[in-house]
Structures are given as structure tokens and as C-alpha cells.
Amino acid sequence: MGQMNAYGGEKSSEGFRRQWDTAAYAQKARDREQQLKLDEENEERRHKGLKPRPAKNTAPKEPRELLEARKDAVRLDKMVGKSQIVQASSAAAGQPGFYCKECDITVKDSLSYLDHINGKKHQRILNRIMKVQVETVDDVIAKLASLRAIKRRQIDKSDYDFYEQVKLQQQLDAEKKLKRKEAKKKQREAKKSVVASDQPDEMAATLGFSSFGSSKK
Fold first, then answer.
1. Burial 111-127 (b: 16+ CB within 10 A, else e)
2. Alpha-carbon distance 33 to 39, whole Å?
3. How much of the chain exceeds pLDDT 70, in percent?
4. 129 near 64, Cβ under 8 Å?
5. CA distance linking residue 129 with residue 68, whole number of Å
């Protein structure tokens, strides 16, 4: 029988401390070092106008996924003016900007960050290829039907009533028509008053009394 611990249970032969897989972490460190050396070499080759060398991938290849529409919105203003502790092993830890956790890099501005997350390198790390699924006619019809159903659920009857809108439009048309009638009536009355004021002068002119009572010489 093994030794008893302070809680009355049997002591583990491995001890109470957490055990780490040192071989796996050592392999990860070697792989990262090789990748950094390859990146530096490819950078020099690009300056010389040569084609970069492909990365050596010893892990078995998994089938890559096709590109899909992003389900969550990218909110670039969420971290503006804030500081974030980044556990980065490269030079990205000491640089200000937008940090990509998957690629372990920091870009300077929002446009560069958007270009990065939509780029080939980022999608390759996410195990995706830069191809989209080819949709058929049936897929398009089904998508349009689902969008139409969502839109119908969003419209509330209390927010939009067809007959109520027609009635409201008829009232507006009637008010406009009434205003036009009143404007025409005022114009006719104004013309009548002008004609009535001009009639005595015309009668006096016909009788020869056009200069009667006038101070003009």
C-alpha cells in the first residue's frame, strides 16, 4: 500500500505538481525557430527578386475548408485607446497596433489589419483555401426564401398597415386639393376687387369728366 497524503488519500507517484510535456514544447520551439529563419531567408530572397521557399510542413495535411462569410462583425473601434497584454514570442509584443493572435503579428493600422485577416497567410493558418463554394440555382432560391422569411418576421403589423397608409395618403391628397381651391378662390376675389376699383374711372372718362377734381394741370 502506498503512502497516505494529508487528506487521507493515497499519494500519487507523480507528485502534486503539474507535469509538462517537455518534448512537445521543445519541438514547438524548434519549429518556430525554423519558421523564423525561413521568413528571414525569404525576405532576403524577395529583395533579390527570387521566389520565396515554401515552408517545410512535417505534420500530416488536413483537408482545408472553403472560404465562408464572416459571421461576427469586425469591430475595429473596440480596442481603440486601450492596452492589451500580448503573450507574443516575436517582435510583435513590443509594437503598438492591431494584434493577430493566430498569426502572432502586429500591424500598424486598421486597413492593414483588414487586409491581413482577409489575406492568404491568415486564411492558411485557419486551414482555409482562397476559394468559395460554388452555389447552384436551388441554393440561391433557398437563400432568397430564407431572407424573405426573416424580413417578414421583422416587419410588425403595428408598424406598417397597408390600409392605414392608403387612408393617410387619401387624407393628404384631400388637404392639398382643398388648399388649391382656396388659393384659386383668393385669386378670383383679388381680380374682382381690382376690376371694381377701375370701373368709376372708366365711366368718368367716357362722360368727359376725366380731369374732374384733379389737381394736375
1. eebeebbeeeebbeeee
2. 10
3. 68
4. yes
5. 10
Q: Is 87 helix (H, G, I), strand (E, B) or coil?
A: coil
CA 3/CA 181 separation, integer angstroms:
108
Contact 111, 126 (CB under 8 A): no
CB 117 within 8 A of CB 132: no
Cβ–Cβ under 8 Å, residues 20 and 40: no
Amino acid at 64: R
Residues 94, 90: Cα–Cα separation, whole Å = 9
The answer to whether the pTM exceeds 0.70 is: no
DSSP 94: G
Q: Give the C-alpha separation, 125 to 61, whole Å.
A: 12
Say how many C-beta atoms besides its own lie within 10 A of residue 105's C-beta: 19
b/e sequence 78-95, b meaning 16+ C-beta within 10 Å: eeeeeeeeeebeeebeee
Q: How does residue 178 score in pLDDT terms, banded at 50, 70 and 90?
A: very high
Given a contact cutoff of 8 angstroms between Cβ atoms, the answer to whether 123 and 129 are in contact is: yes
* Residues 130/67, Cβ–Cβ less than 8 Å: yes
78 is written with which cell numbers? 473596440
51-71 tens-digit pLDDT: 777 766 655 566 778 888 888
CA terminus-to-terminus distance, the chain: 147
> What values do phi and psi take at 103, rounded to 5?
-95, -10
